[in-house]
Amino acid sequence: MPQLNPLDWGPQLVWLFITFGVLYLLMVYVALPRIGSAIEARAQRIADDLASADRLRRETEEAIAAYEQALAEAKQRAHAIIDQERAKLKEETAAERAELERELDKKSAEAEARIEQAKTSAMKDVNVVAADVAADIVHQLIGVAPAKAVIEQAVDAARKG
């Protein structure tokens, strides 16, 4: 084996240093700068992506806050409209109730007047009937018809007493 021969070590070492030097120079001036620039570009892209993600996160949080604020305002407006309509309905109901009560009071007063009139009319008829019946009873008992004025006084006294 020639590589184990001590006489061949000198040229092999020379070629080793030449090859190592060329490879070293290629690595230092060609490969490592390319790898470094790729790593820097990747790091820059990652930093840009993180900054973009942070910006988008902030925009999303702002949009969510604006949405929640708009939703709260919409709820407040809805409640205000509901309260306003409720108050309006209460007013309308109260006005209708007052109108109905006035109509009922009027009809009640009219009914009471008719009842009182019917009562008065009935009482007149009762007095006349009572006087006629009393006159008939007295006539059948004693055989003499009493005077009409006396019978009316007796019926009035009986009703009051």
What does this protein structure show overall?
It is rod-shaped, with a radius of gyration of 62 Å. It is mainly α and 161 residues long. The protein has one domain (14-160). 91% of the residues lie in helices and 0% in strands.
Quaternary organization: single chain
- How much helical structure, as a percent, in the residues? over 70%
Query: What are the low-pLDDT stretches, counting only 5+ consecutive residues below 50?
Result: none
Integer average pLDDT: 90
Which overall shape is indicated by the principal axes computed on the Cα atoms? rod-shaped
Biggest sheet features? none
The number of distinct structural domains comes to: 1
Q: What portion of the residues fall into strands of 2 or more residues?
A: under 5%
Termini, distance in Å?
164 Å
Determine the number of helices (DSSP H or I, runs of at least 4 residues).
2
H and E string = HH
Total strands: 0
Question: Structural class per helix/strand content?
Answer: mainly alpha
